[in-house]
């Protein structure tokens, strides 16, 4: 069976006209993070450590919508959120509303390991971060010029925006500018180690121009993030749709109750969400990998001990796209 790993850097309406200077740094980061995770699995590190390691690396990269690349709220502030879950024990931790924590995913893990709770948010989560002594920075550290521009464009169009270009249902559509720079995305990683432990982690800044206090799918166990003994799942896309469809938990439930393989379960769940709303990466206890989306594309990468290794954005980059 062996180890397997998959990661994503967000799903959405990613046009093929995405210019190389916007595309290539993200692909390079995906490759680097895949290599990092693969090396850790080969060295025998537990799946939970590996997904945390990979997501931390992606949080530190301004090309993705998490950590230092987080998109901005209506007030121009950052509210980061993250989640981790260990499949075999079903222990999990989540955080929301962070404005100073460098690696939200590690704080989520500390919630899991050091508190009797699962989910801490806003000032309680920030206070816990201070108590634990995790690395923090002034809120301005997380606010990039690119994200100020994304917020400006979203405000002008009067829309809440996934980190791509599709407006949320009910809001007016607007064509993206030719060299639109808003193709960044939430990050996530799932893995199974050679001892059979499954784990998942997801981290995000949420949606551009989201209301202050808005919580998305990422930290909601069973929506954006879920793992049990059958599989580990990390989702991306429009959080409100992902929460409504309990996407991550549904993949596990379909495997368990309908007896489907990981790939069939993931394809069925994603097909049940309105088109343009969701993507996910998942691994199963049998070492299968699935990367499925009903959006134009998804920044993604995977590798298995059996020799599969892929990095891609659009469906024809591999054979696994749902469209
Ligand atoms: N799912 C995230 C959210 O709605 C956004 C994303 O995946 O890019 O907060």
TrEMBL record:
InterPro entries according to UniProt:
Ntn_hydrolases_N (IPR029055), Peptidase_T2 (IPR000246)
Keyword terms, alphabetized: Autocatalytic cleavage, Hydrolase, Protease
The residues that hold substrate are: 214-217, 236-239
The record's EC number reads 3.4.19.5
UniProt site (Cleavage): 185-186
Catalytic machinery residues: 186
Q: Which GO terms describe its molecular function?
A: asparaginase activity; beta-aspartyl-peptidase activity
Q: Which reaction does it catalyse?
A: Cleavage of a beta-linked Asp residue from the N-terminus of a polypeptide
Give the first-level EC class, as a single word. Answer: hydrolase
| SUPFAM superfamilies recorded | N-terminal nucleophile aminohydrolases (Ntn hydrolases) (SSF56235)
Q: Name one GO biological process term.
A: proteolysis
UniProt xrefs under Gene3D superfamilies? (Glycosyl)asparaginase
User: Can you state the subunit structure given in the record?
Assistant: Heterotetramer of two alpha and two beta chains arranged as a dimer of alpha/beta heterodimers.
Write down what this protein is called: beta-aspartyl-peptidase
Instruction: Tell me which species this is from.
Output: Oryza brachyantha
Query: Corresponding gene?
Result: LOC102702736
């Amino acid at each position: 069976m062996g180890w397997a790993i998959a990661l994503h850097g967000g799903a959405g309406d990613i046009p093929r006209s995405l210019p190389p200077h916007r595309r290539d740094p993200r692909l390079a980061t995906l490759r680097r993070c895949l290599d990092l995770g693969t090396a850790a699995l080969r060295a025998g590190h537990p799946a939970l450590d590996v997904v945390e390691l990979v997501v931390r690396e992606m949080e530190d990269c301004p090309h993705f919508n998490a950590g230092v690349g987080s998109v901005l709220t209506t007030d121009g502030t950052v509210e980061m959120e993250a989640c981790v879950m260990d499949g075999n024990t079903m222990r999990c931790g989540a955080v929301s509303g962070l404005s100073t924590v460098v690696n939200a995913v590690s704080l989520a893990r500390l919630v899991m390991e050091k508190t009797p709770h699962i989910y801490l948010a806003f000032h309680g989560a920030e206070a816990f971060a201070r108590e634990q002594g995790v690395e923090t920075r002034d809120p301005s550290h997380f606010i990039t010029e690119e994200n100020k521009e994304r917020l400006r464009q979203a405000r002008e169009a009067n829309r809440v925006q996934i980190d791509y270009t599709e407006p949320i249902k009910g809001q007016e559509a607007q064509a993206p500018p030719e060299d639109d720079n808003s193709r960044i995305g939430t990050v996530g990683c799932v893995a199974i180690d050679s001892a059979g432990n499954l784990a998942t982690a997801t981290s995000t800044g949420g949606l551009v121009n989201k209301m202050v206090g808005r919580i998305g799918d990422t930290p909601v166990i069973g929506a954006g993030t879920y793992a049990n003994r059958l599989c580990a799942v990390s989702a991306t896309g429009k959080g409100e749709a992902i929460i409504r469809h309990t996407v991550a938990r549904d993949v596990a439930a379909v495997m368990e109750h309908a007896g489907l393989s990981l790939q069939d379960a993931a394809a069925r769940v994603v097909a049940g969400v309105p088109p343009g709303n969701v993507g996910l990466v998942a691994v199963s206890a049998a070492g299968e990998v699935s990367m499925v989306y009903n959006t134009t594309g998804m920044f993604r990468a995977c590798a298995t001990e059996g020799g599969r290794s892929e990095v891609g954005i659009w469906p024809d980059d591999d054979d696994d796209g749902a469209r």
